[in-house]
Amino acid sequence: MQENVILVDEKDNEVGTEEKLTAHKEAKLHRAFSIFVLNDKGELMLQRRALTKYHCGGLWTNTCCGHPRPEESLEKATHRRLGEEMGFDCQLEKIMETTYKVTFDNDLTEYEYLHVFRGISDNDPTLNPDEAVEYKWMSLKDIKKDIEKNPKKYTPWFKMLLPKIISAQ
Predict the structure, then answer these.
(1) pLDDT digits (tens, 9 = 90+) for 82-133
(2) Is 57 in a helix, a strand, or coil?
(3) HSE-up of residue 80 (Cα within 13 Å, Cβ side)
(4) Distance (Å, rounded) from C-alpha 74 to C-alpha 160?
């Protein structure tokens, strides 16, 4: 099934739609979201991306990421994707917006206007193996240390967002 993303300008105003892979091949700015779910101990749920993902397969990252579909609200999209990817849902609050751009070895580019959400849950996920192959709970302090020691084990957007998430706590 073809999946389309919402193309936006630098202020997140919609300017059109594009097939997802084409948007990544042509480095078109599009709307996306990242979700960070913490438990009551303040540990973050990390997922290791499925090896079959079109980029960053096998790398550790935040709890969930995705793109709203055309005419789908961010709120609906975040809950839909959390269920599809991680097999659970929780209350989410938007904590910031940012833009980032990174080009991968396979000539795909993530150029996203990113809405970042935080949730609290003590539920363990039921992973969709097409999306994530593993998960773990880690303290933000331990994640920061591990990224410094093993930066190639983590996605670029996660490494960019983590300091912002820590300062938002």
Answers:
(1) 999 999 999 999 999 999 999 998 889 999 999 999 999 999 999 999 999 9
(2) coil
(3) 11
(4) 21
How far does CA 83 lie from the centroid of its chain? Answer: 14
* Catalytically active residues, by annotation: 65, 112
Q: Which of 14, 44, 41, 43 is nearest to 30 (CA)?
A: 14
CATH number for the domain whose boundaries are 4-168: 3.90.79.10
Nearest to 133 by CA among 50, 44, 25, 16: 50
Distance of alpha carbon 164 from alpha carbon 166, whole angstroms: 5
Q: What is the torsional sign of CA 58, 82, 116, 123?
A: negative
Taking the whole predicted model, whether its pTM rises above 0.90 is answered as yes
Residue type, 93: E
| Tens digits of residue pLDDT in 52-76 | 998 889 999 999 999 999 999 999 9
Residue 99 · residue 10 · CB < 8 Å: yes
Return the DSSP state at 152: G
Q: Note the pLDDT tens digit of each residue in 136-145.
A: 999 999 999 9
Domain ranges of the chain: 4-168
